Amino acid sequence: MNSPRSVLVTGGNRGIGRAIAEAFIAEGDHVAVTTRSGGAPQGALELKADVTDGESILAAFAAAEDAHGPVEVLVANAGITADTLLLRMSDDDWSSVIDTNLTGTFRLVRRAAKGMLRLKRGRIILISSVVGLSGSPGQVNYAASKSGLVGMARSLARELGPRSITANVVAPGYIDTDMTAVLSDEQKEGIRSQVPLARYGSAAEVAGAVVWLASPAAAYVTGAVIPVDGGLGMGH
């Protein structure tokens, strides 16, 4: 049994983030989750924070480190959508999604790297999307934010690698969550017909890839994009 690690998951109160937090708790790790609205899973330290607010991120890290020691595993999962076609997309539709999904992640990794560089070890895992690699109509803002995470992770992998810090991306496809629940039956069937495995994924299946990337088995994996998409994004 490995000794428990200090893990921080953003957006850990529902959907994929919650499943990731629960998976690390099951591994015996000390898990802190950030949430804007509350409702962290049992066994996690709940931290009210908003990734668009730099001060709240610093406060969340301070609280997590106070409780569990320096953050050894960061999972940047918090994200939003503001879908609409390009010509209808407002500056605010664009900037709100970029600020949460891309700039928010930058703020997180900048703070996490401080402690990891001192420890000379760490795992940074960014949650992207199949859409970031293959694109999607009505999601110019979201796709740009999620593909940006790939460039970020690969730059981090090169910059932080000499200190035994890995940086990887998990790119989920269509997963059964609140975000996909709003789709019509017709939309859902259209998506399912494009997925080689002919089904939606579960949040637990995404969590499995994240836990593996944080494990000793993945110590030599960095700068990778791991798709958990039933084959939807093959070739991207």
TrEMBL record:
Residues 5-173 form the Ketoreductase domain. One of its GO terms (molecular function) is 3-oxoacyl-[acyl-carrier-protein] reductase (NADPH) activity. It is an enzyme of class 1 (oxidoreductase). Gene3D superfamilies: NAD(P)-binding Rossmann-like Domain (3.40.50.720). InterPro entries: KR_dom, NAD(P)-bd_dom_sf, Sc_DH/Rdtase_CS, SDR_fam. The keyword Signal does not apply. The keyword Plastid does not apply. Its EC number is 1.1.1.100. Pfam families: adh_short_C2. Keywords: Oxidoreductase. Belongs to the short-chain dehydrogenases/reductases (SDR) family. This is 3-oxoacyl-ACP reductase FabG. The gene is fabG.
